[in-house]
Amino acid sequence: MSSAASVLSIKDLKVVFSGFKALKGVDLEVGNNEIVTIIGPNGAGKSTLLDAIVGKSPVASGHVYYQGQDITNKSSYDIARMGIGRKFQNPNVYNELSVFDNILLALKGTHGVFASIAAKLTAAKKDKIIDVLDRIGLLEQGYSKVSSLSHGQKQWVEIGMVLAQDPAVVLLDEPTAGMTADETHATGEIIKTISANHSLVVIEHDMEFVKQIAQRIVVLHQGEKLTEGSVSEVQSNPKVIEVYLGREQINAA
Ligand SMILES: Nc1ncnc2c1ncn2[C@@H]1O[C@H](COP(=O)(O)OP(=O)(O)OP(=O)(O)O)[C@@H](O)[C@H]1O
C-alpha cells in the first residue's frame, strides 16, 4: 500500500545487476511540493534508485507507487506519460534550435521536430512556454540558439523541457555538475521555485547546494538507506560523517 500523503512511495525496493545488489530494500516517501535530496558516496545506488522509479532499472522486488498506483516495472514511456519527469546528467538539447523551440518540442502532446515547429502555435502553448522560460530564468534568452548558452543555462533548458511535460514529480540527477558557483546558486533558486508546483527528488554531491535547497535529506550507502532527516540532523550523524561527509570535507580541502 502507498501512503495517502505521498505522491511517490517506494517500498522495500531491490535492484540486482547480475547478482550484484545495487539496492537492498530502500523505502522512500515524497510528499506533494516536497524537495527530497539524496546524498551518498559513489556507487551508493542513487542513480539506480531514480532509474528504478522511471522503469530504466529492473526492480527485483519491492514497489514504486505513484499517486497511489503501483508503477513498478512499468515502461519508461508510460511512467513519463503518467507524470514522473527525469533529467539526466548530460544535456540532451537541440543546440541549433532556440531555447523557445526546445521547450516547444518537449510540450506534452507535441510530436516530431518539423511538425511541432511548422505547426501554428496556439496562444495557450505560447503562454505555457513563456511560463516555463520564466521559471528556469531564461525569458531573455528565449530566442537565442541553445548552442550560444553557457553549460549551466543548457542544464536549465533541460529542466524546462522536463517541466513542459507537466510532471507531478521531477527527478534531477546532479543538476549542478560542472556549473560555476553562481550557476549552482541560481539552480537552487530555480528548484525552490519549481517546488511550488512539483515534487522533486534531487541527487547532489555539493553540500552547499544541498543546504540551499534541502528540506529532507536521504543518505544512501551501499544500496541501503543509512538515515534521513534535516540538514543539521544528517550533518551531525556520526555514521554519515564516517561514510560520506568526512570524505567530502577531505576532498574539498
Ligand atoms: N547497469 C548496471 N549494470 C551493472 N552494475 C550497475 C549498473 N548500474 C549501476 N551499477 C552498479 O550499481 C552500483 C550503484 O550505482 P549508481 O550509479 O546507482 O551509484 P550512485 O550512487 O549514483 O554513484 P555516483 O555518485 O558515482 O553516480 C555501482 O556499484 C554500479 O557500478
UniProtKB/TrEMBL annotation:
Per the UniProt record, one Pfam family is ABC_tran
Name the Gene Ontology molecular function terms of this record: ATP binding; ATP hydrolysis activity
List the GO cellular component terms. plasma membrane
Q: ABC transporter domain location, by residue?
A: 8-247
- Transmembrane as a keyword? no
Judging by the UniProt lineage, the source's domain of life is Bacteria
UniProt keyword Transferase present: no
The record's SMART domains line, in alphabetical order, gives: AAA
Where does the record place a coiled coil? none
**Keywords carried by this UniProt record:** ATP-binding, Nucleotide-binding, Transport
> InterPro entries, alphabetically?
AAA+_ATPase, ABC_AA/LPS_Transport, ABC_transporter-like_ATP-bd, ABC_transptr_urea_ATP-bd_UrtD, BCA_ABC_TP_C, P-loop_NTPase
Q: Which SUPFAM superfamilies match?
A: P-loop containing nucleoside triphosphate hydrolases
Q: Which PANTHER family match?
A: CONSERVED COMPONENT OF ABC TRANSPORTER FOR NATURAL AMINO ACIDS-RELATED, HIGH-AFFINITY BRANCHED-CHAIN AMINO ACID TRANSPORT ATP-BINDING PROTEIN
- Name this protein carries in UniProt: Urea ABC transporter, ATP-binding protein UrtD
- Organism of this sequence: Chamaesiphon minutus (strain ATCC 27169 / PCC 6605)
